[in-house]
Amino acid sequence: MVADTFGVDLQRCLRGLGGLLVFLLVWWLGAMATQPSYLVPGPLDSGRAFVDLFATSTAIIVPVLGNRLVLPTGFAHLVQTLFHYVPGLLLGASCGIGLGIAMGWNGALDDWLRPIVRMLRPIPPLAWVVFALVWFGIHHTGAAFIVFVGAFWINFYGAYSGVEGVSSKLTDAASTLGVERELSMLKLVALPNAAPQLLTGFRTSMGRCWMIVVGAELFGAPGVGYEIINASNNLAMATSVAYMFLISLAFVCMDVGFRFVERRVLAWR
Amino acid sequence: MALNSNSPTSWECNEKICVRNISRSYGSTRALADVSFSVADGEFFCVVGPSGCGKTTLLRAIAGLEDVDSGSVVVDGVSVTNPDLNRGMVFQEYALFPWRTVRGNIRFGLDRPSCECPDCETRVQELVDLVGLDGSEDAYPKELSGGMKQRVGIARALAVDPEILLMDEPFASVDARTRDRLHAELLNIWNQTEQTIVFVTHDINEAVTLADRVLIMDANPGTVQSMVTVGIDRPRQRTAQEFTEYVIQIRDEFGTSHGVTEESLMKDF
Q1: Which chain A residues have a beta carbon less than 8 Å from that of B103?
Q2: How far is CA B184 from CA A127, B162, B237, in A?
Q3: Among residues A99, A230, B18, B41, which one has the fewest Cβ atoms lying within 10 Å of its Cβ?
């Protein structure tokens, strides 16, 4: 049985590796065949550009604290992105989850706010870039605001559907076991029951916010997104690809880490 | 919980549970129409009837989970308006909290501030032993079979030591052999705890196996058809002549109200 699983795993790994090699080959051939060469930077050029990101150092300013931080260039820009990505994500997720729980649990509040939610939710977060510009200026705060909007709705929806969907069987069982107050019911039944949706909402928002943050930086906020467009302005497309790869790497690390936590927390599923 | 003085009853109730003229409709469907009976202290009381005779509604009304349109349920001389720790409930589909382990589920009611429990750990272990779940204390509900889940359901309801145990077709989704064993265990527990049990089932054999008295209900609308006192010493043998006679007697009660053949009753039950 163990050997069997191992065999299947090995087979899947080999297939994955095969797919990757074919992809690199097609990329390489495509890059060779395209003229002028900057239009499609090849895998080797891109790899070299990626290594170069860490060969030089760049100084960045830590927002709020105002002190200088010198880091390898690639890290420096990633950290700049995180300076608005992390606060935007955490704040947006907290507010979204808070409102989602409140509306999912309280029917009257749901009735009051539902039309507003219906109206605001479909607006793509990047559309708020205009307000980010006039309210905060397109720097860390402005970019964080756009990330906030993106994180807000995804987490709102996860929390809302999770809390609203608690089965009456469970709340009935809890009330026969002495849960009387609404708040206790929320804490002891509705929230643990909603945990899977809450966590899925948060994980989805982590990914979505990477898209949003790069979009926000294309408008001028400092970070990897800005570096992508900056490099392409200099026709250094290989560097753009290197930064794209850096984003993907950062996202994969976060996603793997979060899935690990999720598996622990949701062992009961 | 309404106090005795606040909700005076216009009639005497000297029994543990008195149900007086309760009616309940859902839209145009009359689930219960003018149902009255009483249950003695320490009695094992079964309610049998076809699907849709309102037996679950009846049990939920006694639990305080369901409002009635008219009439009242009185327990220990006090009108029932809300669920109470004194009336434990075991649900047909178990209604276990999936995010809690066996131990966590059993402990749920003990963690309420209204519950006095000086040594909860010991109490939980006692119950684990009582329902025969030792070794599975740390398992999550998803890892348990139907029979084991219902053992947890019973232990969870027993944990707070209620005087009344309300059971809603608790063994309906359990295989026949496990059901037989659970019957024996339940009678054993009942002997030890001297609780009053109201047990809803659609299985006449189950009712005759367990009950002191059997209330037979009729459907559309749900009404009391008749009451049978089962005068057989426990443990009861299903193959005994006496046992079969009671089963036939109860079946005949349905027969007189519907004018149906025994075959169609066999199909219904």
Answers
A1: none
A2: 67, 20, 11
A3: B41
